[in-house]
Amino acid sequence: MNPIAWLVSLVLPACGFPAAEGLPTPKPMDIARIVRPSTPNTALAAPAGFNPPPDVATPVYAVEAGRLFALVQDVAAGQPRTYPAATFPDRLQADYVARSAVFNFPDLIMVQAIRTGPDSSSLILYSRSVYGHSDLGANRKRLDAWLAALSAKLPPSTER
Q1: What does the H/E/C string look like for 60-104?
Q2: Nearest of 107, 103, 101 to residue 126 by alpha carbon
Q3: pLDDT tens digits, 17-59
Q4: CA–CA dist 120, 137 (Å, integer)
């Protein structure tokens, strides 16, 4: 661990651990009950009309939900300093921890594929900071990067 992260961990304990360690293992998230905090340190990507309103509207993809879930897991595996924390295959949901480069701050990312039809699906991505009032846009940038990487693997359909 770098010396700066070690010093930060004296005040913010989860910063002193590698990968997904130092944080509780996530439980499945009920996406119908997402409550976003008033602080500007979260970002949500979800289909248009989702409640709470998303920062980014996710498209409908012309692929079965299980395939979309596998593709988004591939995207997560390719992200820097991003580690699996929990997977719930029956819900097509997974949780990840992403760590900042210098201070090792942990952010939590939940992904879930949603069936919209027999051969179509959409996606919810919810990225949030563990520490701090503001994330300086890091969570939104992460969602944009993940969605761009997913789009490169599988362009969205024109269905709505």
Answers
A1: CECCCHHHHHHHHHHHHHCCCCEEEEEEEHHHCEEEEEEECCCCC
A2: 107
A3: 889 999 999 999 999 999 999 999 999 999 999 999 999 999 9
A4: 30
Cα 45 to Cα 20: distance, rounded to the nearest angstrom: 22
Structural tokens at position 38: 């008033």
User: Minimal CA–CA distance to 46: which of 66, 60, 62?
Assistant: 60
Domain at 3-10+40-153, CATH class: alpha beta
Cα gap 91→81, rounded to integer Å:
25
Task: Give the closest residue to 58 by CA, choosing from 149, 147, 159.
Answer: 147
Question: How far is C-alpha 92 from the chain's CA centre?
Answer: 13
Please count the helices (runs of H) and the strands (runs of E) in the chain: 3, 6
Instruction: Using DSSP bridges, classify how beta strands 56-57 and 42-46 pair: parallel, antiparallel or unpaired.
Output: parallel
pTM, full prediction: 0.92
